Each structure stands twice: as C-alpha cells, then as structure tokens.
C-alpha cells in the first residue's frame, strides 16, 4: 500500500512539474548556451508584442497557448539573427529557442550603455503656456515653433455627494494657438494668428512659410473626429493664412519632412487599425502633389521617422501596441531595409538628429542610434514633473513620469523635450514641461 502511495505521489509530482515547466520557455545563445536577457517576442502578422525574456532568459508561455498552430512568432534581439517559427514548431521544441549572432559585420548591432543605474541629468526650462501634446512643431534659427495640438485630459472624478460613486472627468479640446520658444532667452510667446484646431498632425517651415498638414479635428457638434482634408499655409512675412483644400494624405501620426524642395508624407493611421500604404510628395515650387509609391505591407502603421541625408529612419511605431523595429527607406532607390531592434518599444517617439546620431525619446528612456555604425545606446530619464508645470489639480509632484507624444529637438549640443502627456489606462494627463538635456553626457563616437 505504501509503495502504491509513493508511486501516485511521484506521478502527481511529475505531472505538476511538467505543467510548471510548460509555463515558461527559454531563449539562449546557440554557441555559448548562455541565457539571453531582453529578447523581444512578437507576432509576425501585426508586430504585437507578446513577451520579453527575463534575467534568466525565460518567457511566459501561457499567453502563447491561446494562439493557433500556424501563428508565426518572431524572436528578435539586437546583434542576433531573427528567429522565426510557428507556434506548433515552438511547442515541438519544448519552448526552447536557440539564437545565433549575426555573421555579417555590416548587419551587426552593438548595444552600448545597457540599461542600469545610469540616468541622464536634465534641466527644466520655461514651460509651455498650456499643457499640450501631439502638436505640429519645428526648429528654426534657435526657436521652437509649436502649432495646435491636443489639450485633452481624462481623470478620475471624485464623488461630490455621500453615497454617490466616483466617475470620469474629461476635458476634450484641440488647441488653435501657435507658441514660439526662444531658446537663448528661455521664454515663450503666443502668436496672434489662430490655426485650425487639430492634433496628431505635422508642421514644417519652407521659405518663410509654415505648412500645417494632416491630423484630426472635431466635428462642429464635437461628437465626431475626422482626419483633416486641408492644409494650412501661413506666410510669416505677410502674416497671411491660406487654406489649401487639397490634401491627398489624410492621416494621423504619420512621418513627414522636406527634402529637395518637396514635402513628403508617409504612412500613418487613416482610422482605427486602418493604416495608410501611401507615400505622397508635394512639389513646393509648383504646388503639384505626386504619388511616390506604396509602403511594404509589413511596414504599414502609425510611424514617426526622421531624415538623415537621403535616407528616412523609422523607429518603432504602433498598430495595436508599441513596436521595436528600426527600418529605413532610401529616397533615391526606393529601398526599404530592416535594420535592428530598439531595446524598448516606442509608439510615436520624439525624434531629433545631430547628423550621425538619432535621438529617440519616449516614456522614461532616451535611445541613441548611430547611423554610421548601426549601434544603439540606451539611457534612463526620470522626469520629476511639478504639478504647476502640468496645471494638474492633484496634490504634490509626480515623479518618474513617462511622457508620450512629446516633441524632441537638437540645438547646440542640447536636446529639448517639449510637452507630451502621461497615460495610465484611460487616464490622460497633458504636460506643459520643457526639459533640456546636455548631450555631452552621451557617448557620441
């Protein structure tokens, strides 16, 4: 009888151990057998992140068990060949993944400044006149121009009567103002000219004219939002505003820049989970729009990119969630390339460049990508935002804040983080803070 009990216990323990073993998978170096920490795991079909390996190289498998057998899963890690398999193949391998370093030097990625106890210092400077995010902006001659944007705030509303329940308080508003920050004098001024109240758009300066394009606006009764079908052209010298009714690229959170006297607009979101596949260009000398081709299917998303030379670099992006990939688009050849992965996924980051380094800011990190040698550095930023800067009604300052939808600028060895918002579920808190970061703290070789 005792022997039978022992056998039953051993069988039970074996089953439990087997069940527990299946709750975790592992990723390791195919040459050294060492665990790989921070490997990104996502679905090929929409680049939705479904996991990341911990300090022991382990990842949770419970969420994966909901997938179909033919779902394709991608394991991605900087400096390593991407590993792709179906969910069925992953199960057959007992959730063990072996990854190998890239063999071609040109495709290798070096990660410098690993995340750790290293934080960049920053200095709060003169704040925006109003808390604002998702605005159009540009830098010109030592001045930062901020046009329109979102002031929407969503917060918890306290119960005003005994026995009633707390609810949600929302202030939905798009700005129509232009604010100008003079870096040398550390001061903001507000322009008298009013623009269309819009958000999630772009703004550019070309020959003393400001071009404001894309984004979304509220309907007259404020019950609907729609992508903007017009473009505003503001002549700074003459103080005149012209509304151009032609805008073939109606989207939000897209990439836009000026190159060779042409205004380019690429990708973005047309409506929820519907993404533009178009690349358009406006010849600023003739006023004629051109269709410049389509975006590869796997690269369509909300996307922020920045131009360096004749190459556009895109960082992360968003479909259903923030993404990790870095890719490029060559304006001369039309070639798209997958470069490497970020160390932290970003949705629509603030971007700035000094020529060979691209600075990527979102939430609590500044990632620095070197276009010359394909290397990536990562730095922590712990923003301590005073409520007076955010016009918040809560008590006390908010520390370690992660800002989204900010703009980032580079000027004379300093970065400037402007505006943005903090999100926590449905709660949205816009920020008016502006922060200066000395890039001499960063390894720029």
Mean pLDDT across residues: 84
Radius of gyration: 24 Å
Q: What separation lies between the terminal Cα atoms? A: 73 Å
Structural class of the secondary elements? mainly beta
**CATH architecture call of the largest domain:** 6 Propeller
| Gross morphology | globular
Count of all domains = 2
Poorly predicted ranges? 3-21, 103-117, 386-400
> What strand order characterises the main sheet?
8-35-34-33-32
Brief overview:
The chain is mostly beta strands and 445 residues long. 7% of the residues lie in helices and 46% in strands. A hairpin with a 2-residue loop joins strand 16 and strand 17.
Task: Please name the defining characteristics of this protein.
Neuraminidase, 7% helix, mainly beta, disordered N terminus, Immunoglobulin-like, 445 residues
Topology readout:
Layout: H1 2-21, E1 24-29, E2 40-43, E3 49-52, E4 58-60, E5 72-76, E6 83-86, H2 87-92, E7 96-99, E8 110-112, E9 123-125, E10 136-140, E11 143-150, E12 153-157, E13 167-171, E14 174-182, E15 187-190, E16 202-206, E17 209-213, E18 216-218, E19 225-227, E20 231-235, E21 240-244, E22 255-259, E23 262-266, E24 269-271, E25 274-275, E26 278-283, E27 288-294, E28 305-308, E29 311-315, E30 323-330, E31 336-346, E32 350-353, E33 357-362, E34 365-370, E35 375-380, E36 383-385, H3 387-390, E37 398-401, E38 407-411, E39 414-418, E40 421-424, E41 427-430, E42 434-438
């Amino acid at each position: 009888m005792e022997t039978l009990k022992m056998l039953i216990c051993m069988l039970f323990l074996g089953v439990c151990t087997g069940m527990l073993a299946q709750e975790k998978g592992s990723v390791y170096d195919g040459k050294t057998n060492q665990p790989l920490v921070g490997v990104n795991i996502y679905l090929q079909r929409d680049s939705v992140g479904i996991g990341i390996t911990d300090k022991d190289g382990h990842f949770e498998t419970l969420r994966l068990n909901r997938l179909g057998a033919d779902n394709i899963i991608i394991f991605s890690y900087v400096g390593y060949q991407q590993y792709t398999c179906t969910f069925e193949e992953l199960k057959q391998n007992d959730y063990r993944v072996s990854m190998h370093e890239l063999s071609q030097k040109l495709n290798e990625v070096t990660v410098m400044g690993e995340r750790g106890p290293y934080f960049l210092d920053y200095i709060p400077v003169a704040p925006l006149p109003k808390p604002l995010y998702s605005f159009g902006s540009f830098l010109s001659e030592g001045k930062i121009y901020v046009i329109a944007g979102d002031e929407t705030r969503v917060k918890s509303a306290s119960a005003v009567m005994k026995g009633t329940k707390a609810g949600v308080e929302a202030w939905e508003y798009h700005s129509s103002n232009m604010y100008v920050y003079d870096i040398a004098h550390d001061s903001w001024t507000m322009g008298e000219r009013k623009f269309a109240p819009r958000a999630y758009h772009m703004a550019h300066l070309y020959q003393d004219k400001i071009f404001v394009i894309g984004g979304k606006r509220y309907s007259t009764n404020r019950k609907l939002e729609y992508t903007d079908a017009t473009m505003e052209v503001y002549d700074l010298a003459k103080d005149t505003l012209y509304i151009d009714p032609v805008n073939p690229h109606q989207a939000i959170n897209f990439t836009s820049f000026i190159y060779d006297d042409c205004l380019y607009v690429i990708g973005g979101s047309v409506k929820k989970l519907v993404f533009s596949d178009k690349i358009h260009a406006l010849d600023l000398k003739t006023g004629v729009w051109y269709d410049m081709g389509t975006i590869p299917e796997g690269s369509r998303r909300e996307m922020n990119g920045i131009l360096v030379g004749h190459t556009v670099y895109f960082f992360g992006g968003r479909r259903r969630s923030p993404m990790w990939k870095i890719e490029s688009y060559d304006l001369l050849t039309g070639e798209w390339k997958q470069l490497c992965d970020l160390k932290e996924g970003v949705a629509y980051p603030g971007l700035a460049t000094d020529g060979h380094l691209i600075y990527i800011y979102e939430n609590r990190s500044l990632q620095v990508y070197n276009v010359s040698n394909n290397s990536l550095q990562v730095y922590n930023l712990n923003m301590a935002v005073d409520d007076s800067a955010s016009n918040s009604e809560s008590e006390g300052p908010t520390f370690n804040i992660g800002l989204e939808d900010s703009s980032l600028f580079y000027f004379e060895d300093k970065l400037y983080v402007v505006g943005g918002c903090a999100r926590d579920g449905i709660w949205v808190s816009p920020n008016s803070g502006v922060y200066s970061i000395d890039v001499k703290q960063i390894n720029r070789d």
